[in-house]
Amino acid sequence: QVHLEESGGGSVQPGGSATLSCVASGDFYRIFAMKWHRQAPGEQRELVASIGSSGYTTYGDFVKGRFTISRDDAANAVHLQMDNLKPEDTAVYYCNIFTGIPTMEKKNSWWGQGTQVTVSS
Predict the structure, then answer these.
(1) Cα Rg, the chain, nearest whole Å
(2) Which pLDDT tens digit goes with each residue over 62-99?
(3) For 36-66, what is each residue's pLDDT tens digit?
């Protein structure tokens, strides 16, 4: 079992910044990719950002240039720095990590409980 603890959500004014964090704990050998997704009310869940074990990053088009994903392997953590926030960024943000054994192809996917980010004036 792996538990993901998310933090950093809250209310932010448009143009403001916030940092989300996700820390993994439990029974796992190694963490591979780490991702952030978000879901607004009545909308589909969408990928916000992803970072691989090598540090390679990808971003959703709607956050490019504004959000930055990073990882701290020593702390089993992934962070999402969000700048120039917009009202349309309002959503529940979910941490998603993949764990497994390097020599095995199968990987396990784990999700955080979600943290609410509300952008309004």
Answers:
(1) 14
(2) 998 999 999 999 999 999 999 999 999 999 999 999 99
(3) 999 999 999 999 999 999 999 999 999 989 9
Q: In Å, how far are 8, 73, 89, 119, 120 from 116, measured between CA atoms? A: 9, 25, 10, 10, 13
φ, ψ at 61 (rounded to 5°): -60, -30
Q: Residue 76 and residue 105: Cα distance in Å, rounded?
A: 21
Pairing of strands 115-119, 10-12: parallel
Cβ-proximal residues to 53 (8 Å cutoff; 6+ apart), any chain: 30, 31, 32, 33
Share of the chain residues as helix, strand and coil, in percent rounded to the nearest 5: 5, 55, 40
If DSSP codes are grouped into helix, strand and coil, which group holds residue 78?
strand
- Please check whether residue 63 is in contact with residue 48, taking contact to mean a CB–CB distance below 8 angstroms: yes
Provide the 3-class DSSP secondary structure of residue 16.
coil
**Whole-number Cα distances in Å, 66 to 37, 96, 115:** 15, 20, 19
Torsion angle (degrees, nearest 10) of CA 35, 41, 44, 49: -20
Question: How many residues can be counted in the chain?
Answer: 121
